[in-house]
Structure formats: structure tokens, C-alpha cells
Design brief:
39% strand, 19% helix, binds 2-acetamido-2-deoxy-beta-D-glucopyranose, four-stranded antiparallel β-sheet, Rossmann fold, alpha+beta, 678 residues, 40 strands
């Protein structure tokens, strides 16, 4: 029996090596992403959400799934072109509730217009009958909800404009931003024959805030939420609040810090509130800028304490453990692993798993040892995994095979590559993706793909998309370097903050020294260098091509060329305030000397520019200015503007695919030629 199995394995491997073909654009963009994952309170089921392109509808299709851990049965609950807001298990684990946005698909050719007409419903899915029901009334813009401690009531948040008259559109800008109120309602319903029917819909409190994360704390009969704002300039807009249902719905603010709070979760004891936060704040005297950290707030006395304070990297996710303590996802250098801290007094322990990237971790009180997560690595496309006992993490089994088609292709080999920054003598690293079969070859053409952020990192994962498309570029013959330059997360808080007051120049030095090392090592052909990136990667691209003409082709995605006007138009001015050391009038020298706009006449590199038409992070005007300048200067340039898209290019899957298709063509057209354009 064993012999037969091993023979058949050899046969399969032998066969697949022969028949595997290179990744194509179509394969790469036809992938499935996982948007959420959670255990049922009983520990019996996993609920997860997938997202994949619906090419014929010019939209993404979302599907909610339930997986039964004991019977291995997978059931799809509903598939739609709309996103499901916060699918949540009821306290008993018998029901899943979610808010569904139904797009009223019009015939508009404008994607944004087409998807902007919506109506909202709250749905209930019964695990027992496998039926889906909705309660009758259409909702006014729900933003989130939380179950109470019973299966027959929940708290729902709806949001509206404060001013509901026809002047709304012409309100002063600043008023528009704050023109928001949220109302929390209690919904009580009856279950008859496994069908919910609405009994009562009671408003509880209205607050002049936008709410994001929202929880019910049974022990204290409190509602807890996070306030948020579309304009990220005042960190007081991002705080945690509680509402005491026992005391006239008294609203209390729980945090008063200079950080962004994200990802609220309640400890299983119901006594602690966990959250992550990070700082982007500076003043003339004090500043700190941190990676993401994890805190626990004692709801009885208001004290906060920090988890994982001995962990050097960036905490990208977590789940409270049933026996106290936490599991957290920690990005350290190019891996994202699972760590445990049993109590605040204990040290952090790294669970021995696979190299790569763990995401969406979930655990259950009723299966304290079990764990579920999404995982991918350089050579393994993303799937969801489950294991009964976290001690056996390396033996976790995939419960999905959504990206099977990618495993049938040759996935380019990738390794971590290190070099030294001569000035600081610090080790910098990046990821190299080799063209298939060429990992031993010299003199390869290079494409430097820089991540955004800047507080982000390129990691050992497989995310097929328009932002992280290194494997596809490698499959098209490029050696891809993804550098984790100064400013990247996962290398300690100091590494992150070293770019302050010299954001473009400091990161550039690390990137160029990596390219030099690759040439010195003989791996790269110095006559065939190309470079590109999106967002902060676009900022760097725009800067680097003003500093050197060594690159034959450049891909500039949603970058900035004049940081003063970018500061003035972006939704994240606090980032620039921090990066440049102050406001433009405080630090005009830094804003000016780090801005490409005054040096554009030095550019010799043919440049393809892309931007979303409705990007409010980096104004498309920056890309138009770059296009106009290069056009006048006689440097080959093309600007592609994606209609209806914001910074995330998340509206129409064709846009991301077309972006990369055109970028590959640009690299192919100009990347191998050394002719300079003077
Ligand atoms: C994408 O995947 C779907 C489902 O697996 C398949 O039917 C379709 O042909 C694929 N499309 C492309 C362009 O590869
Ligand atoms: C949308 O297009 C369909 C088919 O072309 C047509 O039957 C329908 O009347 C159109 N609807 C509107 C609102 O224009
Ligand atoms: C209700 O809130 C008020 C105002 O903070 C406080 O003085 C009072 O003690 C609270 N009552 C109870 C029962 O907690
Ligand atoms: C995070 O929140 C805690 C509790 O409010 C606070 O002490 C800490 O300074 C904050 N940290 C960051 C990095 O914002
Ligand atoms: C640079 O760092 C290496 C260790 O990474 C050390 O051996 C060497 O002495 C350092 N050189 C200088 C000039 O500090
Ligand atoms: C895959 O791509 C590499 C690099 O472009 C090329 O050398 C190789 O021949 C391709 N292999 C197949 C099977 O097409």
C-alpha cells in the first residue's frame, strides 16, 4: 500500500513538472481572496467570506461559506456582487447574521455610479435548517451591528447626515466632514418555525460620531465602539467609547491617546477589551511613530496594559484565547507567524509553523487547542487551514482549494536577499523572485517593485493582485527585487522612524544600494534595470528617476511629485506632518528638497503612470502634473486613469488586470533598451 502511494506520488510529481506552464495574466488575476474567518461559539463551524472577480459583471463577487469541522461539509450561504458587512455568529452559534448591500444595478457605464445605488437588508442564516431569511424592513445605511447575549436581539448602528435638507450638497467643506450622526437601535425579534420576525425596533442613543468596530459586553451591559473619521488629521477622532445601558445610556470615552485604535475584541471572560493601536504623531518636541501594537483595557478599572511588548515587529492581527492570554500574528522581517502570550507577565512564544504569512486567525472557547487561519507563502497560494491542536501547527490541513488553478502553474522561486547600507552599516533585506528556471543564472534583467505605506513590508506570501504582482513579473522574465527599505514595518520601531524628515532620500539610499549589490554579485545586468511601485512605491519611483537615469523604464502608480499640494489634498495629512517633520510652513525646505517637481527635467526614464480617477489619498492631479511635464520634456510617457476608482482600485477587477497588463508591456518595450531620452 505504502509502495503504491509513493509510486503514485512520484508519478504525479514527474508528470506535473512536465506539464506545468508559466503563470499568465489570466491565471494570476482569476484568484480568490479571503475577506473574513470566524469560529462559531460552539467550535463546530467556521464561517468565512471569499471574494473573486466576476468578469462579466465588472465587479467582485462575494460568497459566505460555512464549514462543518466534523463532517468536512462546506455550504455556501449566499453569493452576491455586494460586500457582507460584519457576518457574526449569534450567542448560541445557531444563527449567523449579516448586513447585505444590494446593488440596484443600473445601466450606467460609470462603475462608481453603477454600484452606488444600494439598499441594505439584515439577513439571518440558520445553521440548523440551512435557510436564509431577511427581516422585512429596508435599513437606512447600517454601518455595523452586534448581537446581544440572546439569539433574539441585536444592536444595530445606522448612520445619516446631520442635515437632511437640500442645502446638504453645498455645506461648507469642514462641516461636511463632521456632518455625521450614528444611531444605535435595539432590534428584538421572535423566532417562529425557525423564522425571525421583527418585534421591536427601538432607538437607544444618537451620537455625533462615525462608528466602526462595535461590541456588546454582557457582563457590564455596555456597548463599546470605536469612533472614526474619513479625514485622518485629528487623532482624537479615533478613540474607544462605551455606552452604559444600565445607566441611561451614558456615553463615556475610554481612551485619550495620540494613537489610532483598530480591531476591538472582547476577552472570553468579558472583562477585558483588546485592541491594536499605532501612532502617527509628531510635534516639535516629541514624536513617536510605531508599528502596530496590542493592548488590553481592563473594563472594571480602566487600566491598559500592552501585550507582546517583547516582540520587535508589527502585530497584524490577534485573537483572545479561551484560557486568558492571546494568539497574535506578528510580522517579523519577511514572515508573519503565530505567537502566544499566555499572560502579561509571560514572555511571547513563537509557534513553530511554516515560513510564510498567516492571516485571519480564529479560535474557539469550545475547542481551546484548535485554530483556523488563512495562509500563503512564496510558493503556496492562499487557502484557509484548520488544525485541532496548535502544537501541531505544521500539520494543519487546508479546508479550501479556491486557488487550485495557481498550483497547476510554475510559481517563480523566491528567496530573501540581504545587503548592507554602507553609510549606516545596517543590513537591509528584500525578496528576490526569479524567472522560472533561472535561479542559478547571472546577468538577469531587473524589476525593482517597491511597496507602499511607507509603513508596510514585502513579505513571504502569495497575494495575486495588482499591488503585489512580483510572481507574474518574474514569470515574464524579470528578476524582481522587493526591497524592505528604511521605513518598512517588521524591523523594529527605530527602523520605521528613520525616514522621518528625509522620507524619499533615506529609503532611496537603501534601495539603490540593493541594486548595486545585485550588480556586484553578478546576478543583475546593469544595462537592464527597471523600477516601479504604487502609492508610496509611486512616490519613490517619481523621486528615484529624478536622481538617476540608470533605469530604462519606470512604473509610477498613484505617486506624488509635489508634497506640499499632496499634503493639502490627501485624506491622511497626519502622515505627511509626521514624515516631513511638520506642516509645509514649518519645514518648507524638506517639503521642497524631497519633491520631484523641481527636478523633473532630470528625468530620462520612459514612465507609465496609473491612477484612480477618484483617489482621495493621493490626488490624481499629481499624476497629471507628472504626465504633462514629461510630455513637454520629450520623455516617453503614458497616463492611464481608471474611472470611478479610488486609491485601492477595488471597484472593477478589470482595472487592476489592465493596469498590470499595460505595465508588463511597458517593461517589455523599454526595459531592455538603454537608449536614453535627451
Ligand atoms: C476564471 O476562473 C473561473 C472559475 O474557475 C473559470 O470558469 C474561468 O474560465 C476563469 N477565467 C479566466 C479568464 O481564466
Ligand atoms: C437597461 O438595459 C436593459 C437591457 O439593455 C433594458 O432592458 C433596460 O430597460 C435598461 N434599464 C434602464 C433603467 O435604462
Ligand atoms: C450613572 O451615571 C452617573 C453619571 O456619571 C453617575 O453619577 C451614577 O453613579 C451612575 N449610576 C449608576 C447606577 O451607575
Ligand atoms: C495605545 O493605547 C494605550 C492605551 O490608551 C496608550 O497607553 C498607548 O500610548 C497607545 N499606544 C500607541 C502606540 O498609540
Ligand atoms: C558592520 O557590521 C558588521 C556586523 O554586521 C560588523 O562586523 C562590522 O564591524 C561593522 N562595521 C563597522 C564599520 O561598524
Ligand atoms: C517560463 O518563463 C521563463 C522565463 O520567462 C522561460 O524561460 C521559460 O521558457 C518559460 N517556461 C515555459 C514552460 O513556458
Amino acid at each position: 500500500m505504502i509502495l503504491i502511494i509513493s509510486l503514485s506520488i512520484i508519478f504525479c510529481v514527474g508528470q506535473s513538472l512536465q506539464t506545468k506552464s508559466n503563470l499568465t495574466l489570466d491565471d494570476f488575476f482569476n484568484n480568490t481572496e479571503f475577506a473574513s474567518l470566524s469560529f462559531s461559539p460552539t467550535g463546530q463551524h467556521l464561517l468565512y467570506q471569499t471574494m473573486r472577480p466576476a468578469w462579466n459583471s465588472n465587479a467582485y463577487e462575494y460568497t459566505l461559506w460555512v464549514y462543518n469541522i466534523d463532517s468536512y461539509k462546506k455550504t455556501s450561504i449566499i453569493s452576491t456582487l455586494g460586500y457582507f458587512l460584519s457576518p457574526r455568529w449569534s450567542p448560541s452559534g445557531n444563527t449567523i447574521a449579516f448586513i447585505h448591500t444590494e446593488y440596484l444595478l443600473s445601466n450606467s457605464t460609470d462603475d462608481h455610479q453603477r454600484l452606488s445605488e444600494k439598499s441594505y437588508y439584515i439577513y439571518f442564516y440558520s445553521i440548523l435548517t440551512e435557510e436564509l431569511h431577511t427581516i422585512e424592513n429596508t435599513l437606512e445605511r447600517p454601518s455595523t451591528f452586534a448581537w446581544s447575549d440572546q439569539d433574539s436581539s441585536l444592536f444595530l448602528v445606522t448612520s445619516t447626515s446631520r442635515f437632511v435638507n437640500n442645502d446638504e450638497d453645498i455645506l461648507a467643506y469642514r462641516e461636511q466632514i463632521n456632518n455625521h450622526i450614528s444611531t444605535i437601535h435595539r432590534l428584538d425579534f421572535d423566532w417562529t418555525n425557525d423564522r425571525p420576525s421583527l418585534r421591536q425596533f427601538t432607538p437607544i442613543i444618537t451620537v455625533p460620531l462615525r462608528l466602526s468596530d462595535f461590541l456588546y459586553v454582557p457582563l457590564e451591559q455596555k456597548l463599546i465602539f470605536l469612533s472614526t473619521s474619513p479625514l485622518i488629521d485629528d487623532l482624537n477622532s479615533f478613540e474607544i467609547y462605551s455606552i452604559d445601558l444600565r445607566n441611561q445610556s451614558l456615553l463615556t470615552r475610554l481612551t485619550h491617546n495620540q494613537g489610532f485604535e483598530i480591531g476591538l475584541q472582547l476577552s472570553p471572560s468579558g472583562k477585558h477589551l483588546l485592541f491594536r493601536n499605532y501612532t502617527r504623531r509628531s510635534s516639535r518636541t516629541i514624536f513617536h511613530d510605531t508599528q502596530r501594537r496590542l493592548y488590553s483595557l481592563d473594563l472594571t478599572n480602566g487600566h491598559t496594559e500592552r501585550y507582546g511588548s517583547d516582540f520587535l515587529g508589527n502585530i497584524v492581527g490577534y485573537v483572545p484565547k479561551s484560557d486568558g492570554g492571546v494568539y497574535f500574528l506578528g510580522q517579523h522581517k519577511t514572515n508573519v507567524g503565530i505567537y502566544t502570550q499566555q499572560s502579561l507577565e509571560d514572555t511571547t512564544v513563537h509557534h513553530l509553523g511554516w515560513e510564510g504569512t498567516y492571516e485571519h486567525i480564529s479560535s474557539s472557547i469550545n475547542r481551546p487547542q484548535a485554530i483556523a487561519f488563512a495562509y500563503s507563502s512564496f510558493d503556496r497560494p492562499k487557502e484557509i487551514y484548520y488544525v485541532d491542536d496548535i502544537k501541531q501547527l505544521q500539520f494543519a490541513k487546508a479546508i479550501t482549494n479556491e486557488n487550485q488553478h495557481l498550483t497547476e502553474r510554475i510559481i517563480p522561486k523566491a528567496t530573501v536577499y540581504q545587503w548592507k547600507d554602507e553609510v549606516s552599516n545596517e543590513t537591509i533585506e528584500g525578496i528576490l523572485h526569479y524567472p522560472p528556471g533561472k535561479d542559478q543564472e547571472d546577468n538577469l534583467p531587473l524589476f525593482v517593485l517597491m511597496h507602499g505605506g511607507p509603513y508596510d513590508a514585502s513579505v513571504n506570501s502569495f497575494f495575486a493582485g495588482w499591488y503585489t504582482w512580483a510572481p507574474l513579473a518574474a514569470a515574464h522574465g524579470w528578476l524582481v527585487l522587493e526591497p524592505n527599505f528604511r521605513g518598512s514595518s517588521g524591523y523594529g520601531d527605530e527602523f520605521l522612524d528613520e525616514i522621518r524628515r528625509q522620507p524619499l532620500t533615506r529609503s532611496t539610499r537603501d534601495i539603490i544600494s540593493g541594486v548595486d549589490q545585485l550588480i556586484k554579485d553578478g546576478i543583475v545586468d546593469s544595462n537592464r534595470l527597471t523600477i516601479g511601485g504604487y502609492s508610496y512605491g509611486g512616490f519613490l519611483t517619481n523621486w528615484i528617476i529624478t536622481q538617476t537615469d540608470r533605469f530604462n523604464a519606470a512604473l509610477s502608480g498613484s505617486g506624488s511629485i509635489d508634497h506640499t499640494s499632496s499634503w493639502g489634498t490627501m485624506d491622511l495629512p497626519v502622515l505627511f506632518h509626521h514624515l516631513f517633520g511638520g506642516y509645509p510652513w514649518d519645514e518648507s525646505h524638506i517639503y521642497q528638497t524631497q519633491s520631484p517637481i523641481f527636478q523633473l527635467d532630470r528625468i530620462r526614464t520612459p514612465t507609465l503612470i496609473v491612477t484612480g480617477e477618484k483617489d482621495i489619498r493621493v490626488d490624481p492631479a499629481q499624476s497629471y502634473m507628472l504626465e504633462r511635464s514629461l510630455h513637454y520634456l520629450g520623455v516617453p510617457v503614458n497616463l492611464i486613469v481608471f474611472p470611478g476608482e479610488g486609491h485601492e482600485l477595488s471597484v472593477n477587477p478589470w482595472h487592476g488586470k489592465i493596469k498590470v497588463r499595460e505595465e508588463l508591456k511597458w517593461l517589455q518595450k523599454y526595459g531592455h533598451r538603454t537608449a536614453k531620452f535627451y
